[in-house]
């Protein structure tokens, strides 16, 4: 199993009471609640936390893209990945991802990723997403064309990375006379591609296509949904004539580890509950605008996520469903090994800072997790570690 | 209430659901974002004076979703083919909300089969500084409450049971509406440029308390279309045909009867 440290860079100083006056911490929460002085401290603190992952022994670090919200302050994640690419030397840097349908020129993403791959000498992992529904309000991109634009932008980026330029690209949404990428990516034929998703059938089928075989990441979902979607990926691969391995499957989950179960729950509670009740809160219309999902997929995700949209998620409820890992190192280790054995994912992306969790606790969490969860699991799986 | 004939016709490769009743001059009714899957009382009333034709737009209700449908211009061209295929002449074209937008786009392209135009709380033009409300951030319940001025009426509608079929159609209608109208939101800059070419007797109807497209838009259409007459319904939201049905029907009868 490979271990990644995932960060959302939330606006930890959010006035939680004031944010309740709005429908969500996304799209319409006024940016008067953002204080740039605090932002200055937060960005530097969060970059420090991500950089710590290397000495702690993580395989990689992850950033991602969200817009106009307090949940994650990385609307332009390439800037953060660029900063990290020079301050780290060994860890992979995964940008999970850019939201392809949001841009009118996907070549900018091909360029940005290629630069990062060049600077890091091939430590870069490319993530492609459609963005969550709220993004389509913030960027005023038509969600009904989201799938079309995602597929077309993806094809354009992969061609830009792999075809000798200049060449013409003739699409419906994107048209170019001269695609001619300088720089070409460092990795050959291109950086590995990971596809984070919340369980869209179309996305799973597409990622599992034999011509792609992209790593599928399930983000912030109950374990039952995780198991279902990962099985769906394996089944889809098999139907399409190939065998998916654990390497093709990843799980992204927030996690808090402390000296004992009791301490872990006490320290995590206000921050975990703020994460689910405040930072993630949004009405279904904002999460899933019309056309963002197919009708069939929409019904599926709504069922799987029905709980997630209700604001009243207690720590116990998210622990129970496996949406949040919390406890002593032994407790968390056992849970991970149990889920890993049952579900068979090969990449674990833990978010060890969340919502309002302060720096000291985030660092303690990362340190205990690295030394007492990650390393013992690595030792318990020598074959996997050696194969890495 | 007279029962309409409900049937399907294939136009431009799209299997299209049609309700039709009455006799007299043809009145083509173009529905808004909420669709028109049911024969409504105002349609029955109009059918006493007109041959009322109510198609469900491609991508809405029981009609197919054609490959070619990307924008309201596609929809307008579809209806030009529709009128030609059924040889409709001297048509009174009535469009509400997004249907008004489609009607305007039809008339700008070719008004040879049209006699008169009725735009009801119509989308299609922009009024800077007065953006429409964001209907896509409204839940189905908020939508119903916000579209009617009469809150009791909205609550009665919300209390009615919704069948799984109705619910599927509502989702479908929202998806097609987004496809056509998300960005630019509910207007077409090219229509702004060319709506002045429209040369038809035009009646613009609006509800004073329209919470989606504010009543200021009525003036925008009056300025844009030469000779257009405006009638505002008091105590009325975005759906005058539904909320002020008798007044709505009377306004159309009177307008159609004028020389």
**Helical residue percent band of chain A:** 40-55%
Strand adjacency order, main sheet of chain B:
1-2-4-3-5-6-7-8
Number of structurally distinct domains of chain A: 1
Runs of chain A in which pLDDT lies below 50 for 5 or more consecutive residues are none
What is the distance, rounded to the nearest whole angstrom, between the alpha carbons of the first and last residues of chain A? 8 Å
Broad CATH class of chain B: Alpha Beta
Query: Structural class, from helix and strand content of chain B?
Result: alpha/beta
Shape of chain B: globular
Report the C-alpha radius of gyration of chain A, rounded: 20 Å
What is the count of DSSP helices of chain B, taking H or I runs of 4+ residues?
10
Share of β-strand residues of chain A: 15-25%
Question: The CATH topology of chain A, please?
Answer: TIM Barrel
Regarding quaternary structure, how should these chains be classified?
heterodimer
What features would you describe in this structure?
The complex is a heterodimer of chains A (388) and B (259). Chain A has helices at residues 16-19, 36-56, 77-87, 107-119, 133-138, 146-162, 201-207, 223-239, 261-279, 284-287, 295-309, 315-320, 329-343, 359-380, 382-387, and strands spanning 2-6, 60-63, 92-99, 124-129, 167-170, 175-179, 193-197, 215-219, 249-258, 325-328, 347-351. With 388 residues, chain A is an alpha/beta fold. Chain A has a single domain (2-387), classed as TIM Barrel, CATH 3.20.20.30. Chain A is globular, with a radius of gyration of 20 Å. The mean pLDDT of chain A is 93. Chain B has one domain (5-257): 3-Layer(aba) Sandwich (Rossmann fold). Helices cover 38% and strands 19% of the residues of chain B. Chain B has an 8-stranded mixed β-sheet, with helices on both faces. In chain B, helix 2 crosses helix 3 (98-109) and helix 4 runs antiparallel to helix 5. Chain B is globular. The two termini of chain B are 29 Å apart. The mean pLDDT of chain B is 96.
């Amino acid at each position: 199993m490979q271990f990644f440290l995932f960060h959302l860079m939330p606006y930890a100083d959010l006035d939680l009471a004031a944010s309740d006056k709005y429908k969500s911490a996304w799209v319409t929460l006024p940016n008067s609640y953002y204080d740039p002085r605090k932002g200055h401290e937060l960005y530097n603190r969060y970059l420090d936390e991500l950089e710590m992952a290397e000495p702690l022994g993580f395989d990689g670090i992850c950033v991602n893209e969200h817009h106009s919200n307090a949940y994650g302050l990385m609307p332009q994640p390439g800037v953060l990945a660029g900063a990290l690419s020079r301050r780290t030397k060994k860890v992979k840097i995964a940008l999970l991802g850019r939201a392809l349908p949001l841009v009118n020129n996907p070549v900018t993403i091909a360029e940005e990723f290629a630069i990062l791959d060049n600077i890091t000498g091939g430590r870069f992992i490319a993530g492609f997403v459609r963005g969550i529904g709220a993004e389509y309000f913030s960027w005023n991109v038509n969600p009904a064309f989201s799938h079309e634009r995602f597929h077309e932008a993806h094809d354009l980026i992969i061609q830009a990375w792999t075809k000798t330029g200049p060449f013409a690209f003739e699409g419906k949404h994107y048209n170019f006379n001269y695609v001619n990428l300088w720089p070409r990516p460092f990795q050959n034929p291109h950086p590995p591609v990971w596809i984070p998703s919340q369980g869209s059938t179309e996305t799973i089928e597409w990622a599992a296509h034999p011509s792609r075989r992209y790593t599928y990441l399930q983000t912030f979902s109950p374990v039952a949904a995780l198991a279902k979607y990962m099985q769906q990926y394996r089944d889809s691969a098999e139907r399409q004539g190939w065998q998916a391995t654990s390497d093709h499957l990843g799980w992204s989950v927030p996690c808090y580890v402390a000296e004992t179960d009791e301490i872990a729950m006490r320290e995590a509670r206000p921050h975990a509950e703020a994460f689910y009740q405040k930072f993630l809160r949004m009405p279904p219309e904002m999460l899933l605008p019309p056309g963002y999902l197919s009708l069939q997929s929409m019904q599926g995700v709504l069922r799987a996520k029905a709980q997630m949209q209700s604001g009243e998620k207690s720590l116990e409820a998210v622990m129970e469903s496996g949406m949040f890992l919390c406890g002593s190192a032994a407790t968390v280790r056992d849970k991970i090994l149990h889920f890993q054995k049952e579900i068979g994912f090969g990449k674990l992306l833990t978010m060890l800072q969340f919502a309002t969790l302060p720096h000291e606790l985030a660092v303690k969490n990362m340190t205990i997790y690295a030394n007492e969860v990650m390393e013992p699991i690595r030792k318990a799986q020598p074959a996997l570690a050696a194969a890495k | 209430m007279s029962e309409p004939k409900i049937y399907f016709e294939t136009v431009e490769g799209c299997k299209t659901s049609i309700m039709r009743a009455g006799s007299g001059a043809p009145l083509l009714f173009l529905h808004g974002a909420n669709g028109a899957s049911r024969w409504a009382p105002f349609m029955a009333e109009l059918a006493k004076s007109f041959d009322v034709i109510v198609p469900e737009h491609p991508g809405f209700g029981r009609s197919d979703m054609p490959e070619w449908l990307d924008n309201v211009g596609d929809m307008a061209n579809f209806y030009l083919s529709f009128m030609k295929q059924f040889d409709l002449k001297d048509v009174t074209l009535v469009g509400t909300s997004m249907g008004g937008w489609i009607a305007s786009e039809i008339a700008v392209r070719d008004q040879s089969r049209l006699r008169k135009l009725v735009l009801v709380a119509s989308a299609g033009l922009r009024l800077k500084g007065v953006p429409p409300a964001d209907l896509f951030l409204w839940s189905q319940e908020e939508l119903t409450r916000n579209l009617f001025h009469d809150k009791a009426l909205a609550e009665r509608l919300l209390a009615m049971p919704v069948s799984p079929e109705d619910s599927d159609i509502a989702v479908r209608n929202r998806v097609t509406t987004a496809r056509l109208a998300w960005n630019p939101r509910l207007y077409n800059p090219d229509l702004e440029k060319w709506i002045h070419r429209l040369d038809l007797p035009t009646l613009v109807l609006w509800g004073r308390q329209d919470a989606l497209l504010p009543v200021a838009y009525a003036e925008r259409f009056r300025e844009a279309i030469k000779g257009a007459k405006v009638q505002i319904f008091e105590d009325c939201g975005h759906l005058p045909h539904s909320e002020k049905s008798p007044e709505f029907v009377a306004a159309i009868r009177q307008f159609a009867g004028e020389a």
